[in-house]
Every structure is written in structure tokens, then in C-alpha cells.
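Thread title: Can someone regenerate the structure for this chain?

I was given the following input by a collaborator and told the matching C-alpha cells would be attached. They weren't. Posting the sequence so someone can regenerate them.
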Amino acid sequence: MSTLWILLLVVLFATLATAYASAVRSSALRRRFEALGKILGRPMEEILRHVGEPHRRAKPHAGREILEWRRINFHVVLTFTDGICDGVDYEAA
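Best answer:
Regenerated them for you:
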């Protein structure tokens, strides 16, 4: 019976540690975006330098690119035309 309790405690600890790590990563990404301030009109390279590589990139047509950053409890989608940010298409925290 004690082995079962130890196993349950290990699983509980691992779950809590994973949740905490995810929350820290989400919070850090949100703070990096907030530190940028106004992003409209900023070059893509500058935004990528500050917040890091996106989770997903899409090029719907020439000159247009959509970048998406996704973490647990934080999600941002930006659109770019010719490498310049058109603004935030979606944000959820």
C-alpha cells in the first residue's frame, strides 16, 4: 500500500511541476510582448528578437505572413505585410 501512495505523490508532484513550468513560460512570453509596447508598424525581425520564434507561421499569399505564439493561458496572432506588422489579429490570456 505504501508503494501506491509514493507513486501517487510522484505523479501529483510531476503534474504540479509541469503546470507551474507552463505558467512561467506563458507569463514570460506575455511580459516580452508587453515590453515591446506598440507593435503596429514594427519590423518582423525586431518583434522576433524580443519575443522569440513563433509556434506557427503561415504565408497565405505573397508579401503576407501570419505568425502565431501559443502557450497555455496565452495566445497571440500577428499579421505582417512585407515584413511590417499590421497588428494583432487575435490575443487571449
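Residues 2-92 form a domain with the Beta-lactamase Inhibitory Protein; Chain:B, domain 1 fold (CATH 3.30.1450).
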